[in-house]
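Researcher: Please generate the 3D structure of the following complex. Treat every line as part of one assembly.
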Amino acid sequence: MPDHAVTLRDVARRAGVHPATASRALNPETRLLVSEGTARRIAEAAAALGYRPNAVARSLRTRRSHTIGVLIPDLNNPLFPPMVRGLEDRLAADGYVALIGNTDGRAERERQVFEQMRARHVDGFAVATAHRSSPLLAQAAAEGLNVVLMNRVADGTGFPSVSPDNELGARLAVGHLIAAGHHRVAHLAGPQCLSTGQSRYQGFQAAMADAGLAVPAGCVVFARAFSIAEGRRLGAQLLAAAPGLTAIAAANDMLAVGCYEALEEAGLSCPGDVSVVGFNDMPFIDRLRPPLTTVAFPHYQLGTEAAAMLLARMSDRLPGPAPAVRLAPELVVRGSVAAPPRPSRP
Amino acid sequence: MPDHAVTLRDVARRAGVHPATASRALNPETRLLVSEGTARRIAEAAAALGYRPNAVARSLRTRRSHTIGVLIPDLNNPLFPPMVRGLEDRLAADGYVALIGNTDGRAERERQVFEQMRARHVDGFAVATAHRSSPLLAQAAAEGLNVVLMNRVADGTGFPSVSPDNELGARLAVGHLIAAGHHRVAHLAGPQCLSTGQSRYQGFQAAMADAGLAVPAGCVVFARAFSIAEGRRLGAQLLAAAPGLTAIAAANDMLAVGCYEALEEAGLSCPGDVSVVGFNDMPFIDRLRPPLTTVAFPHYQLGTEAAAMLLARMSDRLPGPAPAVRLAPELVVRGSVAAPPRPSRP
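Model: Done. Output below.
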């Protein structure tokens, strides 16, 4: 990048003020310390000279980079783009920009990305990759870093968080299957090391217990990742191991899409032979055949809420215990649930 | 963020060297200037003290932030996440991180995001938002900034670029419709201010001319954006204004999805009544009903190629005229094209 000759000193000289005054006037956070007339004169001088504030130098002076590190599992999961957009839009309104890192659910990559961002003096982190037990987040908490958790929560870090009410959401989805007449309901559960996987499994169990239904052996399987490939593998396993199965509650939409594939390969139709529900209501899931019945929560708003919470923490506008915001889930009934077939499959 | 007490000076003192030597040894770009034994001693001292390099301060010294600004139209278009992943993965391999900005196709937002990134001293830009004529890019070119263009190209900037061969891709798609027996083929074109929109329109015209087919009046419409909403609006317009139409070549997959909606609203089936082709082969488009016949190119590779090109330019390993890499497009035949209905629609 070429050097720009115009410095803060030039602006101060033209405006007839001390460089420190010019600095205060040109920094949004300290502008009110300068009288209105002086601030206007300095702004005019800066504009006339084409002065471009050096954010890196300012970051050294103020210890603020106005940059946030965002850690997500994988941008290719359609759940995350709207969440990141919400985050970025809210941050931009306060002059912050976002560094993005994908971790692919790998702890060593998560740590590497985290350290890379930290070396660039980010002012805080928005983390969508939390495991329930996370040495990295425990360390961040011990060091007093600014972190907000998105979508997933972690045990005992004390960080503020924004996530859907996963247990309630799963109860809604499983309750919907039961209300449609299903008794042999399987759960394609997510990884139990993630709060989303654990809470949705608890919701499944609670809904079955509320209805007085037993969970038959072989009817709960645990995915290693929230991926289509895992949904396909475990969907096939459920169909083979659980005869008489008429419905599958998948712990998220990616797993549900994998179930669709497993059903197709087994020559079974959805919802004619087996009903399927998902979780997330991710973009484009309403356009599949059949359109997936799933649990929705506002992804974009999750991002904006997380950003607002992080900005408030960083500016000490949000002191005290960290809030854990739960977004209300909503069942979205589409075309992947029907009454169980009669006679039931052998 | 808490201060970290350990400085470069502490490391130098422990290793018994001058701070400048410690600095050179700990910077990957200058490490070879220090003898191997000394470099090892300094690295051990840094590890023992828990020294964390201050990337912001280094950025001021070296004028390198190891940060790249990435401008995309909208992360919610499924075309972009894999491209950004490819970019990020390749950049990470060289110790670079990515700042992400969405512009929503708005010039003022593009400039704002660009300036915010520039104020953070990014070393270069990867730009997927280029208009054919772009004052912002012209200015960046005049100032000698490091920029690589992704997916779209701009006239006369001289920046290197990686994009699909759009004209060839459109010829493949339209040729496929003609080979299936369609004569009255409509084009739902993209914005002509974008290279993608323009080149695909040229490909459509060339394919029709090659086959000796006229383009009937009302059979080409121009979208204001590559969006589902525009596809739906203009798809309905085509169906109303072009009787006897049996096929629509949409300039991208988002527009094609909008066509699906327009057909459904008109009570017409795809491909029974009207065939549709898209462009991009974006994620999940193979799971729609019918699965979309479209033009594929490697999105992830486009991102890695762009990153490699930018890294090479920044390190002067790629001098001379800027390369314009064209990725080969490939027709992916799925379920949205059939022979025209007989008798043709009135």
